[in-house]
Amino acid sequence: MANGEHSLIAKVMNRISQKITSGSLNQGTKLPSIRSMARTIQVSVSTVTEAYERLAAQGIIRSRPGSGYYVAISTPLLSLAESSPKLDREVDPMWISRQSMEAGKDVLKPGCGWLPASWMPEAGIRRALRELSRADSASLVDYASPLGSLPLRQILARRLIEREITVSAEQIILTESGTQAIDLLCRFLVKAGDTVLVDDPCYFNFHALLRAHRVNVVAVPFTPTGPDLELFAKAISDHSPRMYITNSAIHNPTGAVMSPNTAHRLLKLAEQAEMTIIEDDIFADFEREPVPRLAAYSALGRVTHISSFSKTLSASVRCGYIAVRQDWVEGLTDLKIATSFGGSRLSAELVLTLLTDGTYRKHMDGLRARLSRSMIEATAKLEELHIKPWVEPKAGMFLWCQLPHGIQAADVARVALADGIVLAPGNAFSLTQSAGSFMRFNVAQMSDERLFRSLAKALEVCS
Amino acid sequence: MANGEHSLIAKVMNRISQKITSGSLNQGTKLPSIRSMARTIQVSVSTVTEAYERLAAQGIIRSRPGSGYYVAISTPLLSLAESSPKLDREVDPMWISRQSMEAGKDVLKPGCGWLPASWMPEAGIRRALRELSRADSASLVDYASPLGSLPLRQILARRLIEREITVSAEQIILTESGTQAIDLLCRFLVKAGDTVLVDDPCYFNFHALLRAHRVNVVAVPFTPTGPDLELFAKAISDHSPRMYITNSAIHNPTGAVMSPNTAHRLLKLAEQAEMTIIEDDIFADFEREPVPRLAAYSALGRVTHISSFSKTLSASVRCGYIAVRQDWVEGLTDLKIATSFGGSRLSAELVLTLLTDGTYRKHMDGLRARLSRSMIEATAKLEELHIKPWVEPKAGMFLWCQLPHGIQAADVARVALADGIVLAPGNAFSLTQSAGSFMRFNVAQMSDERLFRSLAKALEVCS
């Protein structure tokens, strides 16, 4: 069969499959006859016949002799979309991240969780790539070592020690991303049916990631100084969780910082309950005055510390890491090899160059200043619209705001989306759906005046 | 506390932790007193005190008041090493891959599963990196789109169509590696306790990967034309498996090719049993005369096709992909985002360049010729030692050989390792440990005469 014919058949198959997955063709629905389909989409009868037969072979459609073809999708075992609470597209976290990833240049993304490309150290990355083009051949073509680049791990250890986290390079495992770091720890520490605690609100991908592990997720209300400890203690006695995932400094989405007293009491609870705390610290370098981390209080005992460079250097260069108690390194590394056969040596080399040639330090100094200016401007403009910050973040890009009385964030998001603006309504971050009147803003994505005009309009429409 | 002091404490902690994980300090063993430890390793008493206290806080050691400190490791939930059959280090697959990844320049690796760095298209990669340093900023700093680079997926689709696999770019999901591709499919299709079929022998990382998913792995004996279909049918009726993972062309470790008849009957069995076949085709481009793939017979129905460029272009640039039925794309992509928040855009750009600028095609033409020469040479040299190929591979780098009568591959591997040679004894690939007299050789890693001298010696010692 000619390639052209092959791809034509594939096109027809996709046209039908997509209608099925999008829901516009439901299970049991009868498909148009082969002839009428061939007419409608202007292809030969033989092409449609072949397409129908292959879709039938795939179990996507079924043929009833003498009657025609009918939709019959077989569903897989695990579908996050199905296992998640049914949400409108506009407030479905999965969809928000995918929208933000796919959004074109003209779309505004105050709801997305990262910085604009123009804020990243582009020149430094270009320089690092040119340097990499002269690296030794092993760096270019060989597998990374199981833990990943030693020089990079040594630098990361030094950086953590500066934050009072006692660690050595042998306790650091490089990963592809912060997400992969948490995923590995979940594989290592929990099994289906276990309970894991998260904050309410928290980074929405924690919900999706934990659903992928089929664990029971329990959300503990978050206060401006950290999780509500009375409810945290109650969650422990009610569910005996194995794990708690949080950001201890620059919390996503609230921008709040955990107080030393909360941290201390939280650790005592975790120790009594023999549960592990995963401290996701990917926003660490945005901080202006560092506060002690949970990992510093516990010396990587009950606490495992993870981070990455996706928010600070590049999301295209994937590089994260786990800082963990020594006796877990071996097992976690086996898991990393088994499930990914090691990380990207190239990405690690690139990050190493940017950390050692001064690019990173200079870039972050500028970024912190720029973010604090944007934070002030965005806060002022939002307050003109009576959108009030829940806390005044000390640093970072996130502003967690309450909308004027009675207005639902999901409604506002829907209206704004029509104007090509992707917002992040509060319930996307709330397992209990109790943040309906909140919205997470990214102050680095709010320079365009269109946003505020559209917001003003949306608030009016929705009030 | 000074940073120097911090890192000194960490050093002491590691020294002890490593002794514990390596097994030289067992659970319950009493540690040296703080003073004697301080003397032995030449650090201050306060440093050792601090290190002991932190190890105690980590639950790695326990203090018994008035008696001293004792080893008390807490084990995690999932440890692949523990869940795998107890093997000597020399035949432990996990260990072989890690050895091969860590091995220094002077070590010979005829047991490893990839090509020497000098065989990879180094110049092309350097050129591609320089080109990438001039790419648009989005490619350098932004997240990839959920499915990954469309231009790359379009090229991959065309390449698959050339192999008679009917697919469109919308059915291709980019991943970090072939391993991550299979891992995603396992998450999507199986749950703990399900049964998955593999070949006996098969690529050893399948065992580790499947253990990480806590599934029941059943191995079906592999013949020179594919799996033994009678035993395959029996395994289906005995275990009603959900999935089967194999390489249909250039099988690892045997180098055998599945016959069309076996493929056809295998697919019928899979369709009756409603099980999914994962076709891992990472050695596809080594083939000299392409044979039809399972994915071509089934039009991506019962069969999901995965591959990567780790074996052909670079293992440092991580880029693999899944070609899958349209109605699974959405769910798999959600899982990919949830567990890794997308792949490396940079790696995809790099692979795209190498596929489009002609580097890849030229490189593979040369590689195929070079491999067939090496295959002939290695076969001849091994036969001088009465080491006989099980089949004569049509292509690829692997030679699955039977050792002279009565000689155990594990013993030979142990002797060779003393000479700095990492071999891959048969049982590393055999779930049932029934390949004790076989050895997998990588003909691309056998140019050094030391290997054959050492092999000759080892055979003599072990016979």
UniProtKB/TrEMBL annotation, chains A, B:
Name used for this protein in its record: GntR family transcriptional regulator
Keyword Transcription on entry: yes
A molecular function GO annotation: DNA binding
Keyword annotations of the record: DNA-binding, Pyridoxal phosphate, Transcription, Transcription regulation
InterPro entries listed in its UniProt record: Aminotransferase_I/II_large, HTH_trans_reg/aminotransferase, PyrdxlP-dep_Trfase, PyrdxlP-dep_Trfase_major, PyrdxlP-dep_Trfase_small, Tscrpt_reg_HTH_GntR, WH-like_DNA-bd_sf, WH_DNA-bd_sf
Similarity annotation: In the C-terminal section; belongs to the class-I pyridoxal-phosphate-dependent aminotransferase family.
Domain (HTH gntR-type) ranges: 6-74
Keyword hit for Transcription regulation: yes
PANTHER family attached to this UniProt entry: HTH-TYPE TRANSCRIPTIONAL REGULATORY PROTEIN GABR (PTHR46577), TRANSCRIPTIONAL REGULATORY PROTEIN (PTHR46577:SF2)
Organism listed in the record: Brevifollis gellanilyticus
